[in-house]
Amino acid sequence: xxxxxxxxxxxxxxxxxxxxxxAVTLGARQFNxxxxxxxxxxxxxTVQNILSNELRYSSLVHVDGEAVGSDGASYGKTVIDxxxxxYDVHLTSADSRSKISIxxxxxxxxxxxxxxxxxxxxxxxxxxxxPYDLGIRVPLLAYDExxxxxxxxxxxxxxxTGKIYATEKFQVRxxxxxxxxxx
Length: 183
Prior knowledge:
The protein is α+β, with helices and mostly antiparallel strands. It is about 30% helix and about 35% strand. The chain is built from one helix and nine strands; from the N terminus they run αβββββββββ.
């Protein structure tokens, strides 16, 4: 073999190796994006199931101001806090009512707005339900006192980039037909 043949073989090997490396990198990136998207849908579904049960059986709700959804429609009043049947067993004062909050891994309000969902300062699902740096946000939580219906919008996104992968909007009829209070 001559030097020219060896150099040609090396150049071809480098080109093939570069192509394979690029293909593997792009494939891994696409896989991670697909996993974030599917896990975001699972996260929204899990939170929807938990919030539906909480709001359906709530016996007290405090509201303030008109609630407007991302579609521009009015959905009643913005929920400030509510009686949580699971996280507040003995409600005795305004200080013990449930508030929905979003926190980061240190318990602070995240700058991106996406994080771990809490009710009454209690994580409602474990950290393992937030894979791939995913977090949740609740841009709308409203109560229509005339129809006794809660309307909720959820968004799941990458907490670092803020890229939204899944959204969920749902309504829950309150089983107790509660009246809203502005106290």
